[in-house]
Amino acid sequence: MIYFDHNATAPVMREAREAWLNATEHVAGNPSSPHQYGAAASKAMIEAREKLAAFLGCLPNEIIWTSGATEANNMAIHHFAQVLDPKAEVWVSPIEHPCVMESSKHYFGKRVKFIPVTHAGVIDLDWLTVELGDVRPGAVAVMAANNETGVIQPWREALAICRQYQVPFFCDSVQWLGKMPAKGLGECDFLSGAAHKFGGPRGIGFLKVPAKSHVTPLIVGGKQERGQRAGTENVPIIVSMLAALEAREKQLARSEHILRGVWHENFERQLLHKLPGAVIVGAGSPRLWNTVSALVPEGSQLRWVSKLDKAGFAVSTGSACTTGKEEPSHVLAAMHFKAADAHRVLRFSSGWETTEADWDALARALAKIHEETHHGKAHAEA
Ligand code: PLP
């Protein structure tokens, strides 16, 4: 089976597994405990915090460990709801992950304003510049890269515009981290990430908040994380996340993603050639080297997924969270795709271990399924 669903979750890489095993065996204490076991756990956690802060370019005490990105994103939006003026709006891109969309609607209701997105899946920076010149929202949220389409968002530019108007900028960097260099992300006022998208373990993520802000906890209890998130920290998975990120940053420093980008482009060319009528979603926009989102020419997306599954390829219909649901993707809707077209979308997301031969095999499998479907239809019509 070849796995093409890394944007949903990625296999735990060797470095992360070894770090987890080592910490589980040798760092057994609770970081809040007042003895040597506690001190060892606390030291390991401090080191991990310092490493993450160094990769992102922020201060270690700006990082709060969370159970993943859903919690981190909820925490950020909840924080805005606590500290902002009760009339303040939040401006959110309409292609955010449901955990940002839903928590924004939950806490801000009608005070959520959506930033327009082009047909190529990028937020409209001109709109943001013009509107911010007029009105100041309480916060702006734009993700670094989209999980469904892989389209890279101009988060640096959006951050700069928000800075100019002193509006806090929140960036969900889940799909960027570990695939693109982390450098500079820490400049975003609020930033979230999760380990399991880049080879770390599931169940661990973080929220970066500015040092001057103190987040009202979503989970109350003990005073862990400087009183911002109660509960004993899971040191082995924290250490494991950093081992994964360190390994990914090394690969990125060696530019290993560039060649993978070439395989990605070759696959797209093959796909368009072998499946007449297929459309690449977000074509023309800068996209992550690992993600291809495509409208397939015929048949329901679930049939394609099931046929590919039988042929030995794990692919997805879009985000893992919408799989199996009837509603078309909110991301494609924001990109002005018709509902009928949105139902034809397939997402192929590779990982660092995916080879050129894997991409080629996927292209051949798609061509074979297309031919069989086509012949089947022609046969039925004859
Ligand atoms: N944000 C983005 C962009 C995602 O892709 C995901 C997961 O798919 C999340 C947030 C939520 O992450 P988790 O399910 O790990 O909490």
Say how many strands there are. 12
**SSE run:** EHHEHEHEHEHEEEHHHEEHEHHEH
Q: Which strand order does the major sheet show?
A: 2-8-7-6-5-3-4
SS element count, helices: 13
Can you tell me the overall shape?
globular
* Distance N to C terminus: 36 Å
Fold and architecture overview:
The chain is α/β, with parallel strands linked by helices. The chain folds into two domains: 2-8 and 255-381, Aspartate Aminotransferase, domain 1 (Alpha-Beta Complex), CATH 3.90.1150.10; 14-251, Type I PLP-dependent aspartate aminotransferase-like (Major domain) (Aspartate Aminotransferase, domain 2, 3-Layer(aba) Sandwich), CATH 3.40.640.10. It is 44% helix and 11% strand. It is built from 13 helices and twelve strands. The strands form three sheets. Strands 2-8-7-6-5-3-4 form a seven-stranded mixed sheet, with helices on both faces. It has a three-stranded antiparallel sheet with strand order 9-10-12. Helix 6 links the parallel strand 5 (139-141) and strand 6. The longest helix has 26 residues, at 356-381. It is globular, with a radius of gyration of 22 Å. It starts with a strand and ends with a helix. The relative contact order is 0.16. Bound molecules: pyridoxal-5'-phosphate.
